[in-house]
Structures are given as structure tokens and as C-alpha cells.
Amino acid sequence: MRNETIVVAGASLAGLRGAEALRQRGFAGRLILVGDEPYLPYDRPPLSKHVLTGEIAPGATTLPGVRGLDAEWRLGTPVSGLDRAGRALLLADGGRLGFDRLLIATGARARPWPNADEARLSGIHTLRGRDDAAALASGLAARPARVLILGAGFIGCEAASSIRALGLPVTVVDPGPAPLARTLGHVVGSFVAGRMQAAGVDYRPGTRVTHLEGDGAGRVRRARLAGGGAIDADLVVVALGAVRNTDWLAGTGLAANAGGVSCDGACRVLDAAGRPEAAIFAAGDVARWPHPLYGGRPVALEHWGNAVAQGAHAARAMLDGPEAAGAYAELPAFWSSQFGLNIKSLGLTEGADAVAIAQGNPRTGRFLAVYGRAGRTLAAVSVNAGRWLPAYEAPIRAAAPFPPITGGADQPALKPVPPGLPAPRAA
Amino acid sequence: MRVVVDLNRCQAYAQCCYAAPDRFVLQGDEILVYDPAPPDRDRAAVERAVQACPVRAIRVEHGDAPAAAGISA
């Protein structure tokens, strides 16, 4: 494959780790990474944490692995389309990059405030990339009178924690019942809400913002609430989740929409009829694949660890073939830090009908919660108890009877309760 | 120098914090904060941190990032 060209669309974590794995596995041909941002691949998790608190500079998180790659970089160059028959990636600058194989790793972008006119007001931020974090940090440096955060998912909660650490007044408006409820459920989310409130956040569950209003200078001033009422704020962080970057694949006949690009277990992208493309692969946030641990349900994970592992899996499938690579079955895992809590998770809680505090106790601020469905173990979440988590990997992989570990010294009898997960969003 | 820690793997054994106290710090019980771009003069300390990590969660790459990473015209 010395004369082959592999193009990687997307120059963030999944694209970088995929490219590295290609080289480690002996690919000696031409390797081109295309990125929409004008930066080498950088690490995103610090952006909502220590970059906002000023402990880390926004430009300091370039990832290891960029130096020895022997790749061509086309940075600051968004992709605009794909010529499937002609095997070429189309670039927004009018360029065209022919490939023998393509790895799609275009990731996701922050979901914007839905009213475009309102979203243009100055002082309204989203948080996804390095420029976003720099702009938000600069807005915070002007010491706004109140910061309003829309959404209490991981980005919203981490931003709230960081901004409180700067001593600024923060309100979090959450349409859901508890922070992180979509992922952790109401039981664990309520514990996080307590920490959030103890840190001085004005947390408003079950509340929806309908309009953002500006002043005469076009600067955001106020948020109007559904059911009346308003919150004055001069800086707003829109943290309403992410949209997968698949627009550029429209009209190609590939199975792609805002929920991701569908691929098989070997990361081969599927066409609309569900047939795998031999030369086009996907990995990272943008990829949606049937997860064998979850009954083949299509999942797309915005997880750091998934970007690393799936990028490498795609590389193996490209070079050694789909059979050798096998079905991608990485156990979902993520971490978050906020309000002094280190939250770590294994497995997927979606569909859980029970949660039990299996070790520790929320009253002491240190515990492990295990999630089950129909008597089988699905997932586990540790809060300031990360060393208890690895013991749950095997039971989750095996869908062991729930709860999987009983008789812990501090938990003589487990009391499973409904986890309080909201109904899944329509795809 | 570029550093990244796999915080899924990290279990807060804090050995990096002893090996390179200027670059790795625990906040609270187990939140690891680290400098992703330490200066070259800390190379030996950061290498000690990599070696000391019981779960091998720290990755470091020395030298400058490719300058030619250049934005293609």
C-alpha cells in the first residue's frame, strides 16, 4: 500500500489516533489530515474546566502524537462534500483530495441557540472548540454581573463549576429534573444538584428559556422563561448538546444525519440501503454503530475514550480487513470533574430500570451507583470513588445479574430504586 | 512537550504529583489537573511521572509540534 493515499476528514482526537494507528500498523503511503480549525489536534476536555478557570491556556492542549506522524496537514480547511464514485473529498476552499481510503472523523459541533437572530447577540457563547473557550474566558474576564447557563448536561455543569470557581454569579436553567439526568438519572443527578447549590449556583430545574433579549447595543441582557418570568444575565452559555458534523455528506447516498454517520462493527460506513462501503470508514463522535453489548442498538458516543479506541479500530479494519478487525465493542467510558466531584462511568445507562448505591454513601460524598435493566447489569458510575469502578467492567460486559456485587462491607443490603432517567430523545 | 493523561485510566494514585509536583496536582480527592504543555526544562520530571504511573495513563511527546502544520493555502 506504499502508493495508496488515505485521507482523514477531521483533525481532532479520533482522526489523530486513527492516523497514528495506520502508521503503527505499517501504512507507508500518503496520509493527509484535513481539519476545519486552523490548529493541530488538541485535547478538548480541559476547555470546559481548567481553561475557563485560567489554569490552562486555551492553546496549550495540542495532543501528543502530532510530531512523528509523517502526515500532510490541511488545517483551517472545512470539508464540503464527497465524490463517492470518484473517490475524492471536496474541500470548502475548492480543493479536491483523491483517496484510496477515507476515514470520516468530523466529530460534532455545539448545538446553537435555535433562534438565529437571538443567537447573534454578543455575550452568547457555545463551548466546543478552542476558540470558543478563549472567547468565553475573555467574556468572563470582563466580570459579567450574572452568567446564565442553558442546559445541565456535562458541558453546562462543568462550565457552571468553573465559572463559580471564578467567583461569578451563575444561574443554570435546566428543562430536566436534575443535572446530568439524561445520563445519570434523577437519583445520582440530585446528589450533583446538591453540590451545585452548595457551590452557590442558582439551579432551576424544570425550567425552559423561550427567548433571549438584548439591549440597544446588541448585547444580551435577559432571558425570558416559559410560563412567565425572566432572568437578567449579561453572559449566556448555550449548552444544549451537540450536532454531528454530517451535513457535508448530504446527497451522497450514505446513511448520515444529525445523529451521526452509520457504520458497521468494522467502522465501514453504510449506504442508505445498509451496505458497507469498502473504502470509507468512520470513527469518533460522528460514528454511529451497532454496539454488541447493547443488543446491536446503534450508538454514537461523544466520549474521549471512544475517539481513541474507534480511531484505532478503523485503522486496523482499513489495513487488515473487517474480519481481522472484528466487531468494535469498546465498553463505553467517560469521566467528568465538577464541583469537587470526579464522576466516572462504565457502560451505558440508557434504558435502565433500577439503580442501587452499591458502595459508599452519597452522604459522605463518595459512592458507586450501579444501573440495571430487567435484572441485568448495564452500567456503573463512581463519584469520588474511581478505584471501585474497574471491578464492574466484567459484570457489565457479561450483563451479569443485577446487582452484580453484593456483600460489600459497607452495604449489607442493596436497595435498588428507579433511576429516574428521562425517556430517550427521538433520533 | 505535549502531555495528555487518559483520565478514564487514571485512578488518582498521585505518583505523578510526587514525581513532577509543578506539573501534576490533585484537586479534592481524585481530580487530576496537569499541565498539557510543560517547558522542556521539566523533561526529566515529566518522564519520571510517566514511569511512576501505576496505570500507565500518561503520554508525553517531546520536541516542537510540526511547524509546517501549516495551514494550506
Largest contact between chains: A-B, 40 and 30 residues
What does the largest sheet of chain A look like?
A: 6 strands, mixed
Strand order, largest beta sheet of chain A = 3-2-1-7-21-20
Q: Give the overall form of chain B.
A: globular
Taking strands numbered 1, 2, ... along the chain, how are they ordered across the largest sheet of chain B? 1-4
Biggest sheet details of chain B = 2 strands, antiparallel
Question: Can you identify the CATH class of chain B?
Answer: Alpha Beta
pLDDT under 50 segments of chain B (min length 5)?
Answer: 69-73
How many extended strands of chain A? 28
List the helices and strands and how they pair.
The complex is a heterodimer of chains A (427) and B (73).
Chain A: E1 5-9, H1 13-24, E2 30-34, E3 72-74, E4 79-83, E5 88-91, E6 96-98, E7 101-104, E8 108-110, H2 116-119, E9 124-125, H3 130-141, E10 147-150, H4 154-165, E11 170-174, H5 181-198, E12 202-205, E13 209-214, E14 220-225, E15 230-232, E16 235-238, E17 242-244, E18 256-257, E19 260-262, E20 268-270, E21 276-282, E22 287-291, E23 297-299, H6 304-320, H7 322-325, E24 333-338, E25 341-347, E26 354-361, E27 366-373, E28 376-383, H8 393-397
Parallel strand pairs in A: 1-2, 1-7, 2-3, 7-21, 9-16, 10-11, 10-16, 11-12, 19-22
Antiparallel strand pairs in A: 4-5, 5-6, 8-17, 13-14, 14-15, 18-19, 20-21, 22-23, 24-25, 25-28, 26-27, 27-28
Helix pairs in contact in A: 1-6
Chain B: E1 2-5, H1 15-19, E2 24-27, E3 31-34, H2 43-52, E4 58-61
Antiparallel strand pairs in B: 1-4, 2-3
